[in-house]
Amino acid sequence: MVVKIVATFAAAALLAASPAFAHHGWSGQEGKLVDMTGTVVQGVSLAGPHGTMKIKVKDEVWDITLAPPARTSRAGLTEGIIPVGATVTVRGNRSTEAGRHEMKTVLVKHGAKEYHVYPDRE
Amino acid sequence: MTALQFLQWLEASALGQATRALGVWSYGIINLAHILGIAMLFGSILLLDLRLLGAWRQIPLAIWSGPTTFMARVGFLLAVCTGIPMLSVNATEYAGNPFLLVKFPAIALALLNVWLVHRSEAWRAHRLRELMPRERRRLAVGAILSLVFWLTAITGGRMLGYW
Question: Looking at this predicted complex, what is its ipTM?
């Protein structure tokens, strides 16, 4: 009985550790990098598991998902550094889900400034 | 109040504002404490439930049950006290997330099971005397339900972040 229970837990642990479950992966994103230019409607927030901002591209508001807060901050992209209304260009991988306007972002350009939050993914 | 209204209220609350203002490491640290709480909770529960299912019979249940239920309570409290601020950081992002409807009902069922086990004749008797086979079966059923409900709650909670 106990052996069976332990074996079940071990199997569950192995399953959970497999790459398909990789945490906060890029698996739901398109393979190709895309540039989008838009207007900031909600500035950078470094609360939560990832940094975030919202930009308006044409008539659509996009969720811009950045790196974890500490990493985004190390890249120089801190809260308040890009004002609402500013024009920015973001580069990243968009969600593959139809109608979901979300981009996992590797680079944010604001004027002459570039914030490389995931330089190894560019 | 709908679920969305509750999540909006929680996000806009003083708790949400304060947690968001704590700095870039705050979410990670709160998350760490949440995981430690779950580790204490589930680790203790696993030890108790396996004992109720017949493992380590040489150790009297009356000795086993004290520290395991105590640590499970401490872990649960830690998980709740860190889980609420974590949710408040960006609560509305979880609106419509189906794993919320897995996690929280599973926690409710798990707590109901705890309450039913603790008020059972078998549980009350275990500190005083040897249990009868019928009473051991009652506690074994409670142990299986406990493992199912808590594992479901933990799975739902983990999968929230992948939706």
Answer: 0.71
